[in-house]
């Protein structure tokens, strides 16, 4: 693997873009642009990301989600999740602090803008595996994400991959496949994404994905954004 390092001249900008957040921290908005990878279930997002992290172990990071569920044994606040009370999280959602939220088994979960900024402030590219609603929401923020859509060859192929993966019940499989056409329509609409990866052969798709990401990050580094690419 070619491994190279650009660290970069401009220090994290200090004061102008800070904001108090749900986590009670002040954060800088400077740093690499977040990278959104969107695509129907089974299209191969996790597979692409796993390869990317193996090639560049220091470049990327995942934001820490918020949840209203109680911590399980061994789980730490601000490590596994930001554990918060429901009224606090509801107020933050109403205040437009979240990119994406969902409710499972009576608990709220979500990705806050501040959590994404925290990864940026570390000089890492925050990876977001989000759905259409989240993409629409993040587009309305100042996070300026790179938006990539992972396009599978067909819904039949999605079904085949998901069955092979063996992760789904018949019901959850149906749900995923039913959602897929809407996601494909959104993903393939001109202007919604910066890059569409046609994920047919995984090796070809990964090369295209990797090349695009490296090109984008190199451009940012050349503009003085602190990007670690190695
Ligand atoms: N291009 C490909 N060709 C054949 N199989 C693939 C390809 N990409 C991924 N797969 C396989 O398809 C299955 C689904 O891939 P993966 O779990 O990466 O999808 P995903 O988009 O992350 O799904 P989800 O959104 O449900 O997490 C996996 O078993 C993976 O090994």
UniProtKB/TrEMBL annotation:
Q: What is the lineage of its organism?
A: Eukaryota, Metazoa, Ecdysozoa, Arthropoda, Hexapoda
Q: What class of enzyme is it?
A: transferase
CDD domains attached to this UniProt entry: GMPK
Kindly give the PANTHER family that the UniProt entry links to this protein.
GUANYLATE KINASE, GUANYLATE KINASE-RELATED
Q: Which domain of life is it from?
A: Eukaryota
Xref: SUPFAM superfamilies: P-loop containing nucleoside triphosphate hydrolases
Q: State what protein this is by name.
A: guanylate kinase
Query: In this protein, which residues make up the domain named Guanylate kinase-like?
Result: 32-214
Q: Which GO terms describe its cellular component?
A: cytosol
One Pfam family hit: Guanylate_kin
Say which family it is in: Belongs to the guanylate kinase family.
């Amino acid at each position: 693997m070619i491994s190279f390092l650009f660290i970069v001249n401009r220090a994290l900008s200090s004061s102008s873009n800070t904001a108090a957040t749900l986590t009670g921290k002040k954060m800088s908005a400077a740093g690499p642009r977040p990278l959104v990878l969107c695509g129907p279930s089974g299209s191969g997002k996790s597979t692409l990301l796993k390869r990317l992290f193996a090639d560049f172990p220091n470049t990327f990071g995942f934001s820490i989600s918020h949840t209203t569920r109680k911590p399980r044994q061994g789980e730490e606040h601000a490590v596994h999740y930001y554990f918060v009370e429901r009224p606090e999280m509801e107020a933050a959602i109403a205040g437009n602090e979240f990119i994406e939220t969902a409710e499972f088994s009576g608990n709220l979960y979500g990705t806050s803008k501040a959590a994404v900024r925290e990864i940026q402030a570390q000089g890492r590219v925050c990876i977001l595996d989000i759905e259409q609603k989240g993409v629409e929401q993040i587009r309305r923020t100042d996070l300026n994400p790179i938006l990539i859509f992972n396009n599978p060859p067909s819904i039949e192929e999605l079904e085949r991959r998901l069955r092979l993966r063996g992760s789904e019940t018949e019901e959850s499989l149906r749900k995923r496949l039913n959602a897929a056409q809407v996601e494909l329509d959104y993903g393939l609409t001109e202007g919604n994404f910066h890059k569409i990866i046609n994920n047919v052969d995984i090796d070809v798709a990964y090369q295209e994905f990797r090349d695009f990401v490296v090109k984008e990050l190199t451009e940012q580094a050349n503009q003085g954004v602190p990007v670690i690419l190695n």
